[in-house]
Amino acid sequence: MTRNEMPSASGVRIAGDDYQWLNAWRSCLEALHEDLTGSTANPIVAVGVEEPDVGNGDDVVLHRTQPPNTYTQVKYAVDNRTAVNLEYLTTSGILRKMYRTYAGLTEDGTPVEMRLITNRNADPNDILVADRDGRDGRLLPRAAQGGHRSARGEARASWAKEAETDEDHLLDLLAHLQFDIAYDIERLQKDISLLMTANGLRSDPAAVALGADWVSKQVMEGRRRLTVDHIKNAIDTLNLQAGSPWTTISVATITADYLAEKAAVSIEWVDRMSGATDWARVEPAPPATWDDLATDIRSIPGRLGPNKRILVTGYMRQATGFLVGTELRRVKGYEVGIRQGDQLWTSEEPITNNVIAHAQEGNTDGPDTAIIVNFAAEAAAGTIEWIRESVLPVSKIITVTPKGGVGPKAVPNAAAANSLAIAIRDLARNHTRSGDLHLFLIGPLGLAVLLGHHWNRLTTTHVYEHLGVIDYTLAFTVEA
After folding, report:
1. What is the pLDDT of residues 451-466, one digit of tens each?
2. Cα–Cα distance between 167 and 145 in angstroms, integer?
C-alpha cells in the first residue's frame, strides 16, 4: 500500500476548487431537474459561481424566479483536525462575514437564504452546533431555547458577540442559515450521480467529472451566472444525455436523505425508528407503528399527480422498499427505478427466463404459504427455524435462490434484477392457490422495490422485516 504524503499548498487549493465546482454542478443539476419536472413553484433559474458584489455567499448562488435566493459559502478541509464550532467560525471569520453578507442582502427587505457547505465534521461539544437539525441543517429551533443564563443562552451571547450583532439579529440569521456539515466529496459525488440519473443523464464517475470541469471552465472564461439554457447546452455538448428524466421520491428510515428536498414526495422517518445508529434502525419506536409508516407510504401515489416514471431514493430496509414498490405497481401505470450501488435498476429492463431455483419444505397444517427470497446470504435455515417457532399458519415453505448462486453479487445488473423480480412473482402465483403469502426478503433493496412493483394478481401478502440473528417481525400487509 502506498503511503499518503502531505498535500502541497497548490494541491490543497486545487482540491478546494474541485469541491466548489462539484457543489456548483450539483446546483446546476437541481436547477435542471426543477425545470424538466416542474416540481417546484419557485424554481432555480440560474446558478451563480463566484458572483461579484454578494459578500461571503458568492461561491454558489441559487437564483430563483422569486426571492429568496440562496447564497452559499463553500469551505474545504484536507483533514478533520478542525471541527465546525464557534472557535472555527471565529478564527476563519466565517460567522462575522456571513452575518455582514446577510445583513447587506436583506437591508432592503428582500428575503434570502444562506448556506455553509463544508466537509469538516461538527463539534458535538459546541452547544449550538449540536442543536443542528438533521433534516434541514439549521440550528433553530433548539438554539433559541433556554433563557439568557442557560447554557444555550450563554452560547448565543458568544455567537452574537462574534457576529458583531445582538441576539435577536443572530437568531434571524440562524433562521435562514443552513449548515451542511460533514459533506465529504464521496457523498457529494454520489448525490451528484443520483441527480444526474434523475435528469436522465449519464451518471458514471467520468460524467460527474465532466460536469464539474465544465463549471470550472465557465468561471475561467468569466461566465459567473449559469442559466438553465447554459446547462442544457452543456448537456448536449458533453454528450451526457442517456434517457428521460425521472420524478423522484425519497423515503428515509435509516438515515437522512440529503436530496429529500428535491424530491416530489419525501417521507422522513429516521427520528421515529428505534436505534441510535444507522445499523440499529430497523423498526418503528413506540408510539410510532408499522401501520403509521404504511399510511405515509400509501399516500405517495396521491401526491405524484400525473407523474408515472418514478425514481426511488432514500435509505430504507427491504420490507419498506417492497411496500414502496407495491404502491408504484406497473399495473397502475408506473415505471420505477432505484440506484443500487453505481447502477440504475429499472422496471424497463428486458427480461430473461429460467433465472431462479427453488426448494419446498412441508410445515404444520395451515392455509398459507411462506416464500423466502434467499439471495444475499445463505440465511434461509434461520428463517425457516423462525417460521416454525412462531407457528405461522403455513403448510409449505418455499426458498427461492438465483440460478447463479447466493451471495452479495447474486444480482449483477439491472436486467438480472428485473428478470428475477418477475420470476419470483410468477413462482408465487404458481404456488399460491389459497390462503395468504408470508414473504421474507434476503437480498438487495433494489430487488425488493422491483419485486413490489411487479407484485400483482396474487393473494394477501404479509412481508416481514429482519430484526437480527434469526428474529423477524411482521411489518406490512399488502393486498395483491
Report:
1. 999 999 999 999 999 9
2. 12
